[in-house]
Specification:
Elements (H helix, E strand, L loop, with lengths): L2 H16 L4 H11 L8 H18 L1 H5 L3 H20 L1 H7 L3 H20 L9 H13 L7 H11 L4 H27 L7 H27 L4 H16 L1
Helix pairs in contact: 1-3, 1-11, 2-7, 3-10, 3-11, 5-8, 5-10, 7-9, 7-12, 8-9, 9-10, 10-11
InterPro entries: UppP (IPR003824)
Pfam families: BacA
GO molecular function, one term: undecaprenyl-diphosphatase activity
């Protein structure tokens, strides 16, 4: 893999991992609709995910260092649903990645959720054990390609009365164990690949990290300004276009 391809994949990963537009959905569409596009090997994919994970850890460093035992328990509870679904239904979920029409429909659903988020009031309910579990269920549903993890979890949090900023923060922090767990399962199932130069790994890692940081900031900006509809319109139009062609 050349440097330019590594940078492009890092850019796509950094953008779609956190923006509520479904990274898995875009990967399926790219593989199906772009001639010559192939999914990167397991190790390179893991490196890209490490880049976006580092972005979360860096962006929320102060909050993470100040987390108390209760919040850590809430994150653990929120991680359980996706962990169980991912482990026990891995083969069924992987089969969904071959159905472009299904992904397009899920993208439209993601877009509708994003439109609704703008309409929901930002209240101040606490993140309880029940709320963390329900947000975790939303994260589990988002394993389906086309459903955005950040979009589904933020939508669920705000619907439960949590403030938009707090819901987004919990969503991003919840992504860390989810991403690491998913990559561990991927490694255990498929093993590592070889043949990619070290400099390509580094470029992919750095680009996904930098773009990931920018994407996190953009999510908060659009939430606060009531512009999540931008992501909603984009996802709906993309899904509709794929169904048409």
């Amino acid at each position: 893999m050349d440097i330019l391809s590594a940078a492009l994949l890092g850019l796509i990963q950094g953008l779609t991992e956190f923006l509520p537009v479904s990274s898995s959905g875009h990967l399926v569409l790219a593989q199906s609709l772009i001639p010559g596009f192939t999914q990167p090997g397991v190790l390179f994919d893991v490196v890209l995910h490490f880049g976006t994970t580092f972005a979360v850890l860096y962006y929320f460093a102060k909050k993470i260092l100040a987390l108390d035992r209760k919040y850590l328990i809430l994150l653990a509870i929120g991680t359980i649903p996706a962990g169980l679904i991912g482990y026990f239904f891995q083969s069924q979920l992987e089969a969904m990645f071959g159905n472009v029409s299904w992904v397009a429909i899920e993208l439209i659903i993601t877009g509708i959720l994003n439109l609704i988020i703008d309409k929901l009031p930002s209240r101040k309910a606490v993140i309880s054990i029940k709320n963390s579990f329900l947000i975790g269920v939303a994260q589990a549903v988002a394993i389906i390609p086309g459903i955005s993890r950040s979009g589904a979890t933020i939508f669920t949090g705000v619907s439960l009365g949590i403030s938009k900023r707090e819901a987004a923060e919990f969503s991003f922090l919840l992504s860390v164990p989810a991403i690491l767990g998913a990559n561990l399962l991927q490694i255990m199932t498929h093993g590592f690949d070889n043949g990619i130069a070290v400099n390509s790994y580094m470029v992919g890692l750095i680009v996904s990290f930098i773009v990931g940081l920018a994407s996190i900031s953009l999510v908060f900006k659009f939430l606060e300004e009531g512009k999540f509809k931008v992501f909603g319109i984009y996802s709906i139009l993309l899904g509709a276009l794929v169904l048409i062609i």
